[in-house]
Amino acid sequence: MKKIIIGDRIVKSFGEGDEKRNVLDGVSVEINDGEFVAVMGPSGSGKSTLMFALSGTDNVNGGKVVFDGKDLSAASENELSDIRRTSMGFVFQQPTMLKNLNILDNIILPSMRDNRKNVAEISGKARSLMKRVGIAELENRDITQVSGGQLQRTGICRALMNSPKIIFGDEPTGALNSKSAQEIMDIFSEINADGTSVMFVTHDAKVAARTERIMFMRDGKIVCELKLPKFDGTDMDGRVEKVTVKMLEIGV
Ligand SMILES: Nc1ncnc2c1ncn2[C@@H]1O[C@H](COP(=O)(O)OP(=O)(O)OP(=O)(O)O)[C@@H](O)[C@H]1O
Predict the structure, then answer these.
(1) Which residue puts its alpha carbon closest to atom 9 of ligand 1?
(2) Which of 29, 96, 135, 190 is deepest in the core (most CB within 10 A)?
(3) pTM of structure
(4) What ligand 1 atom has the least distance to the C-alpha of 41?
(5) Is 0.90 exceeded by the ipTM?
(6) Contact predicate 216/53, CB 8 Å
(7) Which positions fall inside the ABC transporter domain (predicted)?
(8) How far is CA 130 from CA 11, 152, 217, in A?
(9) Which domain, by its residues, includes 140?
């Protein structure tokens, strides 16, 4: 099985001298191409830091990260930014959008940096993604004129514009009501079914239960994993229960 990401004994520390602390304490993790994984753990255990390390957003103090065969630890800032822009998509709890641009322009803006493509091609791709996630009619709306769920769909379209190999999500449904959250998770399940790898950081057992492997972190280390069959729309209650039992077991 091809690995999209290999993290090998990653160390990430913050602070200086006596204050220095390893937030990631030799974490090794592999994500298969096309896999859907979640990272859970208590607040402060290092989940977001791990996501930023694996995506090359933050440099690491030890170990290495290989993304799609490329050693990120040896890549320049420009190379890293190219890799993130062309091969990775990011979705956060609160999508950051530019207030003076409408929905369509917010989606296409990051792709405009790619001079190999023209505006018509980029807009065409954006419109087909908007249709796919159910916001086709909103392209001219101001970002203040849409719901939280619609804004998150906008963020997903933006993340998918360059057909990334992996989507990283940090609490991507954290700001949504349960119906919207479920709809957003349906979209991510579809994206994953099309072959895109997905890695989520989440506190939510219902979100984690949609994935096929959950890594549990504590004090900067992955302490255990839970594997589930790929989600096929069935047995959601049973999956959530398995996740919850594991969370209780390790005190998350
Ligand atoms: N830039 C930084 N400088 C100093 N300390 C940091 C920095 N970023 C994170 N930390 C610390 O590293 C630890 C892990 O943070 P991280 O955000 O990875 O945790 P988390 O598991 O994602 O937490 P949460 O569930 O609350 O989001 C925390 O103690 C945090 O305060």
Answers:
(1) 49
(2) 135
(3) 0.93
(4) 21
(5) yes
(6) no
(7) 5-244
(8) 39, 11, 35
(9) 3-250
